[in-house]
Amino acid sequence: MQKYSWIIAIILILVIGLGFGYLYFDDHAYGAWGDDSPGYLYLAGRMLQGEPLVYQDELVQKGLDHFGDEKLARFLTPTHHEIISPDGWLASIYPVGLSVVMFSVAKLSGNDLAIYFVVPALAALNLVLIFLICDLLFKMLGQKKWSWVFAFFAAVTVGLSGLYYDYAISQPMREIPSLFFILLAAYLFLLSIKYHHEGATTSSRLQLALMVLGTLSLGFSLNIRHTGIAVLPAFIVLLFYICNTKKFTIKQNSKKTLSIGIVFIILLIIPLIFTIYNSYQISEHKEKFRNKDISGTAIVSNIDHVGSLSPLNMISSEGKFRTENGGLDQYWQVMKNMSWLPYFMILVFIGVYYTWRKNKYLSAFLSLWVLGFLALFSMWVNPYSRYIIVAFPALAILGSFGLYYLLTDIYPKLVKNVKIGKLLAILTILSILFIYSPAVALIQENLEEEVLINKAISESDLNNLLAMGKLVEDRGDEKPIIMFSGNWQYGLSETLETHTGIKTIRMPFEQQKFEFNNDQVKAFFDQLLDDGYTIYFWQDSGTSGDTNDFLWENYQLNELKKYSFSFTDEIILYELHK
After folding, report:
1. What's the CA gap between 125 and 463, in Å, rounded?
2. Dist CA 548 CA 171 (whole Å)
3. Is 507 helix (H, G, I), strand (E, B) or coil?
4. CA separation for the pair 500, 164 (Å, rounded)
5. What is the CA radius of gyration of the chain?
6. What's the pLDDT tens digit per position in 526-544?
7. Distance from the first to the final alpha carbon of the chain
8. Distance (Å, whole) CA 128 – CA 152
9. Which run of H or of E encompasses 305?
10. Which of 168, 109, 197, 136 lies closest to 13 in space, CA to CA?
11. What is the pTM of this model?
12. Where are the domains of the chain?
């Protein structure tokens, strides 16, 4: 069996990649309503249209001049963007890395819709990398026999995790893409270390190239989520590991160790050129004109989020999300439930214990991977469950080691009778298959039906938005604006603008945080119409009574077309006339 293990491994890689790829692509989103994902889509759209990411918006400038208050002009800005100067300059408040990946894939494929393929594709590739990393770690710890079985277990554990599955198919978010580059970095690092410590015949240049590529990949992951910095301690452990051999020890070669550290930092910074350039552009136009502005310099786009970190949030969150729990309890529940196995965390702790006995560096690497993210996100003011997805691979790999040592070491020590020990191992494996049977049934159900999760919209919904944009474009207006209202105004507006370039805004009366004066709003709309703008109005079942009353009392609404979406069949597009 060992002779053909590499053939079996290749087959399992294909099963993982193609199987989960098919599963994730079957129900993946084509955009979203909401305020997170559309912000990344919007930036990718601007890149595809050749537009700058930090830009001056004529409409926002008019809003600032008219309302005299930055807060009252926010209905004119895309989600996840903020006004950075009184001259109407806008910038995203979130990192640009995911948008860069989406843009690159769309350009390389020649298909703008490929931006929606990025997350499900990377979700499947992540599982392949988990398999490769786990298999490699088993071999590095001297456990070559059946390593591919336990590597497969690790990949499937993550792939069938309910939370991971949800974010593989739902609105495009940053966790899974950033995880891909972390996993790629981990695999390249570990492969280089394996060659180095085994004294392999591979050239030192190849080993160095693997380390360089791994560091660049790790650096790029920070463009997608700056919080990926929490995994750096784990990778620093790997650096110490490669620097601590019989021929090269840290104490005896402190200068070389320092040099390696400096090169590591430089290589880590190089891929951050996207973040650095974006921050530079923001700083070029940012002014301190709001009470909350600290300075006119942007270190990173969302640097103000650091202020929400507090150790107290670990036990009692001060944010708007699950304040009664605190981050540690919240994430413990998420990690405990990431696997269908009720005893999964026991396997993880067994894995930590045995890997520590075998190789302290590799055990510390996996443990710090989990603990780094757990500590950081537990201090976050709002401990969203999806944040900890980036720790799932390390947990799954430790759980795989736990299962391996449970079957091969713990059972034989507990049960002296060999036959009974083998029977116990077989029963454990059968119990795992039985426990996962509902997951298989759920997969079949999801493949048979259309599943839309976490504000995702379907392909037909996107086609409706594109048709709406085409209708407006065909009318030949010089300066068209589509004003969204109702329950789905956030997100759909950015999705439409991503693919059409048509300016979208939201109805001011439905921005709940702020009070608007009717006469002031009417004067603003009148000014836009007089200045040559054409205003279109999206009305749905959630459009407020105040909005309807205001528009019907002050304007003539010409109905253009009705639309039916998966989430509602009551969408009407109007054109406003004085």
Report:
1. 28
2. 30
3. coil
4. 31
5. 27
6. 999 999 999 999 999 889 9
7. 80
8. 9
9. none
10. 136
11. 0.93
12. 37-112+457-577
